[in-house]
Structure formats: structure tokens, C-alpha cells
């Protein structure tokens, strides 16, 4: 076979690979949409009933900022409460709109991540990475968040966190980048308490060498300090929660909690496998990062935005562990945490891709063996992701059935006796 025929065959195979990867990337969000359409039950659940007094105040013209700023557990849910109250007022509290809002924030997050990938890889993101990112962002490991309107707060926190990182990568050292990053950090902070960690996680990006670094660092730290002071004003330890000091008396339990949290994207909700998955993801990221740091400043600069996302996931896992380990390590398997834990997996994928690229550029003699190892790890991660997704869909279906039965019973109950119900 001549060189021309070989080249044509290679182009055809590359084209088909691109088509398959594009189909995979599109299939993930479509699967989530299908699950929302078939399993979403429009009924308020648990904390969601707290919207009722807010809607009553809105109807009476008495709703104010103090009602939205009010502490909920460790959080000040200003942004998600404002969104949910607005949607309820506009749609007659059609909870499907809250499901849709979560999905749209996930789509926005994916768009920002895809833009970051293009910047990292010189204008064109690898197709396999885009497909992998779609599988992670729209994964069923976070099944609880897709079908509970109240959980839009998690997707708003994720979007704000990625927005802050994206803007600092896109406009380094410029006022526009810092201002948009502040808006992202504010959105994240006003959606969940873990969003406060964005102010810390992106500091390395703010501190990159440029003529106005001192000015932007001063502005960033001043804004973070002022917001934190307002956030903590009148803050109280939530009743019924274990004391934060519980983590000090059980450091090994804290480590298990953190590793379980980080392993949620691939852990199949298994209390024995999830912490191992978390350690595995962390080790892959650490190994690839070490290789890139040794490769030189250019490689380190490409990795830095993704390292900030990984740091955010680590800090979130640690902060949640400190506050929740007293409830038991099993609590770390709550699927709500997967939305933030996904950031470490995404960062590990990018770090491994960059390390592979650097190895190819250096023409290392051991490159073939390392490629084989990375390929094996990729296959294992894909299998674990599939298993986690399958378990997530089963849990989603079970939850949907129970909520549908409760809703049917509620609708059949005599309206004159609703108070007794």
C-alpha cells in the first residue's frame, strides 16, 4: 500500500473517531434530559418546602433581602432562593423549571470548560477530552441533583467556580478578568458555603506575574475579606450538626470521608470502592502534575487553571468532611457532592493529557510503556464511570417511584383536610 492510500485510510479512521466521540459527547446531556423528562416528579421535597413562606411574603409584597440572606445550615442561599422564588412566581411553582435551570447551568459550565480546553491546547481541544468532559459534567453520579429542584444551588456553585477560573485564564492580568472572576466567586459563595473557597482556590491565577499583579491581588483580597465579614456577621452554628472539633478526634475517619467524597464520580456509591477511587484519581493528578512541573514553566502555566479547580474540589471535600464527619463516613456517599468532586476528575484528565503530550514532545524512550499505562487507566476509569452511572440511574428510578407515589397520595387527599395531612 502506497503512502497516499495509508494517509487516506488514516484520515478516514480519524474522521470516524471524531464522529463517534461527538455522538458520545451529545448523548450524555440528552440522557440527562431524558431522565429528567421521565423521572422528574414535580413535588416539593424536604428543604424545598422552605420556599412556601417566601412565596407567601412575595405574594404579600413583604419579601426582602433579609429573607434571602437568612442562614440555612452553613449556607446563605441568596442566589438559588432568588432564582427559585422567581421561577415559582412566573410559572405557578412548576418544579420542572427548576430541573431545567439545573440542566442549563450544567450546559453553561460545560461551555466554559470547553473554552478552557481550547485555550489550554492551543485553540483546539482534543475530541476525546471533550467527550470525556461531557460524560463527567452530565454524569448520573449526581443523580440526586438532577431530580431535586432545590439542588440547583450545586450547579450554580459549579458554574460560578468555573466562571471565575475561566475569566482569569482568558484575560490574565486584566481588569475584565478579575471583575468577572469576582462575579463568579460571588455567585458561588451565595449559592453554597463551599463557594467561599473559590476566593482562595483561584488566588494563584490572580497572582500570576504581570504589571498590575499587586493591584489585583490587593483588590481580590479586599473583596474576599469584606464579603467574608458580611457572611459571618450573625452566623450561628447550625443546631443538630456535629461539632467541627469531631474531625480532630478522628483524623483517619476524616481522611476516609475526604477520599470517599473525591471518589464519588467513579466510586459506584460503594463504601469500600469509593475511597479507593478517590485516592486513585488524586494520585493520577499528582503524578501528572509532578511531571508537568518538572517540564518547565510553559507546562506549569497550561496546567495552572486546572490545578485551581482540583484545589477547589480538595478544599470542598476537606471542609465538608470537617463539618460532616461526625455523621459518619457513609454520609460522604451523598450524590449531591459529586457535582463538585467532578472537578478533580476533570483536572486529572487534563493533567494526564498534558503529561502525555509533553512526553511525546520529549520523545522519551519509555513513552510507549507510559502510554499503555495511561490507556489502561482510561479504560478502568471508563468502566468505573459506567458502573457509577448505572447505579445512579437505578437510584434515580427508585427515588422517582417513591416521589410519584407520595405525590399521587397527596393529590388524592381531600383538600379540606390538607392541614391535617
Work out the strand percent: under 5%
What is the helix fraction of residues, given as a range? over 70%
**Given the helix and strand composition, which structural class is it?**
mainly alpha
Radius of gyration: 23 Å
Main beta sheet strand tally, sense and closure: none
Shape call = globular
Low-confidence stretches: 417-421
User: What is the tally of beta strands?
Assistant: 0
Rounded average pLDDT: 88
How far is the N terminus from the C terminus? Answer: 78 Å
Name a few traits of the molecule.
mainly alpha
Mind explaining what this structure looks like?
Helices cover 72% and strands 0% of the residues. The chain contains 18 helices and no strands. It has helices at 3-39, 51-59, 65-69, 78-91, 96-120, 127-137, 143-146, 152-170, 175-189, 198-201, 203-206, 213-232, 246-249, 251-262, 273-295, 297-324, 338-362, 367-412. Helix 2 packs across helix 4 (78-91). The N and C termini lie far apart (78 Å). Residues 417-421 have low confidence and may be disordered.
Task: Give a brief rundown of this model.
With about 425 residues, this protein is an all-alpha fold. The chain is about 70% helix and about 0% strand.
Secondary-structure blueprint:
Layout: H1 3-39, H2 51-59, H3 65-69, H4 78-91, H5 96-120, H6 127-137, H7 143-146, H8 152-170, H9 175-189, H10 198-201, H11 203-206, H12 213-232, H13 246-249, H14 251-262, H15 273-295, H16 297-324, H17 338-362, H18 367-412
Amino acid at each position: 500500500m502506497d503512502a497516499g492510500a495509508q494517509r487516506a485510510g488514516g484520515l478516514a479512521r480519524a474522521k470516524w473517531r471524531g464522529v463517534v466521540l461527538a455522538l458520545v459527547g451529545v448523548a450524555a446531556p440528552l440522557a440527562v434530559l431524558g431522565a429528567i423528562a421521565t423521572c422528574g416528579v414535580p413535588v416539593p421535597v424536604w428543604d424545598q418546602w422552605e420556599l412556601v413562606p417566601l412565596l407567601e411574603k412575595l405574594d404579600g409584597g413583604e419579601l426582602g433581602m433579609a429573607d434571602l440572606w437568612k442562614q440555612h445550615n452553613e449556607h446563605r442561599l441568596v442566589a438559588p432562593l432568588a432564582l427559585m422564588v422567581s421561577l415559582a412566581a412566573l410559572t405557578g411553582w412548576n418544579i420542572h423549571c427548576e430541573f431545567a435551570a439545573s440542566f442549563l447551568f450544567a450546559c453553561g459550565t460545560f461551555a466554559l470548560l470547553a473554552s478552557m480546553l481550547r485555550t489550554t491546547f492551543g485553540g483546539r481541544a482534543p475530541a476525546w477530552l471533550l467527550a470525556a468532559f461531557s460524560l463527567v459534567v452530565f454524569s448520573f453520579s449526581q443523580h440526586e441533583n438532577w431530580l431535586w429542584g432545590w439542588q440547583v444551588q450545586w450547579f450554580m456553585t459549579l458554574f460560578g467556580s468555573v466562571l471565575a477560573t475561566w475569566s482569569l485564564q482568558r484575560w490574565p492580568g486584566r481588569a475584565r478578568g478579575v471583575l468577572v472572576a469576582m462575579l463568579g466567586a460571588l455567585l458561588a459563595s451565595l449559592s453554597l458555603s463551599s463557594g467561599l473557597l473559590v476566593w482562595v482556590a483561584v488566588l494563584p491565577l490572580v497572582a500570576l506575574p504581570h504589571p498590575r499583579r499587586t493591584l489585583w491581588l490587593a483588590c481580590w483580597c479586599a473583596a474576599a475579606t469584606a464579603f467574608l465579614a458580611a457572611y459571618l456577621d450573625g452566623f450561628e452554628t447550625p443546631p443538630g450538626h456535629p461539632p467541627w472539633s469531631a474531625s480532630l478526634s478522628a483524623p483517619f475517619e476524616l481522611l476516609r470521608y475526604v477520599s470517599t467524597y473525591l471518589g464519588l464520580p467513579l466510586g459506584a456509591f460503594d463504601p469500600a470502592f469509593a475511597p479507593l477511587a478517590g485516592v486513585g484519581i488524586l494520585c493520577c493528578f499528582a503524578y501528572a502534575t509532578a511531571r508537568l512541573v518538572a517540564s518547565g514553566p510553559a507546562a506549569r502555566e497550561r496546567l495552572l487553571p486546572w490545578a485551581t479547580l482540583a484545589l477547589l474540589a480538595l478544599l470542598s471535600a476537606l471542609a465538608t468532611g470537617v463539618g460532616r464527619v461526625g455523621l459518619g463516613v457513609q454520609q460522604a456517599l451523598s450524590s449531591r457532592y459529586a457535582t463538585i468532586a467532578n472537578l478533580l476528575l476533570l483536572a486529572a484528565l487534563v493533567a494526564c493529557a498534558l503529561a502525555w503530550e509533553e512526553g511525546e514532545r520529549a520523545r522519551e524512550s519509555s513513552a510507549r510503556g507510559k502510554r499503555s499505562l495511561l490507556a489502561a487507566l482510561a479504560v478502568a476509569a471508563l468502566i468505573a464511570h459506567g458502573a457509577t452511572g448505572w447505579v445512579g440511574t437505578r437510584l434515580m428510578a427508585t427515588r422517582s417511584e417513591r416521589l410519584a407515589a407520595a405525590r399521587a397520595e397527596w393529590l388524592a387527599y381531600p383538600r379540606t383536610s390538607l392541614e391535617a395531612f
